[in-house]
Automatic annotation (TrEMBL):
Protein name: Pyrimidine-nucleoside phosphorylase
Domain Pyrimidine nucleoside phosphorylase C-terminal as annotated: residue spans: 324-398
Organism encoding this protein: Mycolicibacterium wolinskyi
SUPFAM superfamilies: Nucleoside phosphorylase/phosphoribosyltransferase catalytic domain (SSF52418), Nucleoside phosphorylase/phosphoribosyltransferase N-terminal domain (SSF47648), Pyrimidine nucleoside phosphorylase C-terminal domain (SSF54680)
Protein family according to the UniProt entry: Belongs to the thymidine/pyrimidine-nucleoside phosphorylase family.
Keywords recorded for this protein, A-Z: Glycosyltransferase, Transferase
PROSITE patterns: THYMID_PHOSPHORYLASE (PS00647)
Entry GO MF terms: 1,4-alpha-oligoglucan phosphorylase activity; thymidine phosphorylase activity
GO biological process, alphabetically ordered: pyrimidine nucleobase metabolic process; pyrimidine nucleoside metabolic process
Domain of life of the native organism: Bacteria
Presence of keyword Nuclease: no
A single cellular component GO annotation: cytosol
Quaternary structure and partners: Homodimer.
Length: 413
């Protein structure tokens, strides 16, 4: 059992270069193999928060009242563009959202990569700018930057020592950044299934429970939804293609599953923020969420009047026969999008904003022989063969509709 003092010391000393990489690697491996007690996870997370600044926006007022500061975090999915329509819905309902966000690594996309596909959009915001935006616009989406610097260093070491997939280390890593960003309530979307970080429901449930406890122990009421990530969300996987789909949702259309998850999370966030008497669905119908999105993008330098980038080369996959679209494996589509250039293999690599996959037929939809099922986009056509190989076997056309698993699996907290 690590004492509080030992945890505080090792996090501080490692962040400041006084503990050797070899020693920290050994400790991470011990945690990876043996786990941590709940008390150790709480202290480890608190020490990571203390390694940097913890934002406090409780003094900000709008119309004389404190801001209803609330945020969400997703453990990462395929086609998971939900933050993009969700934030404006919550803003239009009266919430204020300080969102520290990340760039993608490996098969999961990052919200910042998607938003940066909007010409001019910047997520490099100073603290003063974040405060001003929260007060005047109602949200700010910013790179985690100096929040929990211990996490950045420890995450890089986990990456090269194969200790990323440790539940206590994942939970403390995510929550250290989310608890430092200044939200007063948190809603987590914990993914379950083939395209998720953790594949099985018991593991995801345990991650959700651990993160909810960490939030509550640090004074930020936290709840989680467990949601299905076996199939991609919606019909677009990539960067700009996902922004385009989010704009459809904000215009009152868009795929049913994206709309349903946006509204389920918005309902939780609005409730967690203590806002009564609003229906998030109204904000999609009456255009108020779209207005908030335009204001947010404009505040961060983005220009929605410019066309979104689209990969200069296109390849299609067509239906081999008549029938019904079967299940689509989220991981196969994610890997295809990554091969096309939508994601990165190493931190800091550039991504192609116009790369991605459009899914023309979702599971259960009728299919005619020869029609286009998937469109693939990239600026580097030599990537097509690897992307097509990833898609191969990730879908099938059958005789009847596949089982339709529920999107919302459970609620924790
Ligand atoms: N996201 C994080 O921020 N940290 C992890 O450890 C895993 C996912």
């Amino acid at each position: 059992m690590l004492s509080d003092a030992a945890i505080d010391w090792v996090i501080d000393a490692y962040t400041n270069g006084r503990v050797a990489e070899e020693q920290m690697s050994a400790l991470l491996m011990a945690i990876f193999l043996r786990g941590m007690t709940p008390a150790e996870i709480v202290r480890w997370t608190a020490a990571m928060i203390t390694s940097g600044e913890r934002f406090d926006f409780t003094d900000l007022r709008r119309d004389g009242r404190p801001l209803a500061l609330v945020d969400k975090h997703s453990t990462g999915g395929v086609g998971d563009k939900i933050t993009i329509p969700l934030l404006p819905v919550v803003m239009a309902c009266g919430g204020a959202v300080p969102q520290a966000s990340g760039r993608g690594l490996g098969h999961t996309g990052g919200t910042l990569d998607k938003l940066e596909s909007i010409p001019g959009f910047s997520a490099e915001l100073s603290k003063d700018r974040i405060r001003q935006q929260l007060r005047d616009v109602g949200a700010a989406i910013f790179a985690a930057g100096e929040l929990a610097p211990a996490d950045r260093k420890i995450y890089a070491l986990r990456d090269i020592t194969s200790t990323v997939d440790s539940l206590p280390l994942i939970a403390s890593s995510i929550m250290s950044k989310k608890l430092a960003e200044g939200a007063r309530a948190l809603v987590l979307d914990v993914k379950v299934g083939r395209g998720a970080f953790l594949k099985t429901e018991p593991e995801s449930r345990e991650l959700a429970r651990t993160m909810v406890e960490l939030g509550n122990a640090n004074g930020v009421p936290t709840r989680a939804l467990l949601t299905d990530m076996n199939r991609p969300l919606g019909r677009a996987v990539g960067n700009a293609v996902e922004v385009a789909e989010s704009l459809e949702v904000l215009s009152g259309g868009g795929p049913d599953d994206v709309v349903a998850l946006t509204l389920a999370l918005a309902t939780e966030m609005v409730d967690a923020a203590g806002i009564d008497g609003v229906d998030p669905a109204d904000t999609l119908r009456d255009g108020s969420a779209m207005d908030r999105f335009r204001a947010l993008v404009a505040a961060q330098g983005g220009d929605l009047s410019q066309p979104l980038p689209v990969g200069s080369a296109r390849e299609t996959v067509t239906a081999p026969r008549d029938g019904v679209m079967g299940d689509i494996d989220a991981m196969g589509v994610a890997m295809a999008a990554w091969r096309l250039g939508a994601g990165r293999a190493q931190p800091g690599e550039p991504v192609q904003f116009g790369a991605g996959v459009r899914i023309h037929r979702r599971p259960g939809e009728p299919v005619s022989a020869g029609e286009t099922l998937f469109s693939l986009y990239t600026d580097t056509p030599d990537r097509f063969s690897a992307a097509l190989a990833e898609l191969d076997g990730a879908w099938a056309v059958g005789e009847s509709a596949p089982a339709d698993p529920p999107l919302l699996i459970d609620r924790v907290g």
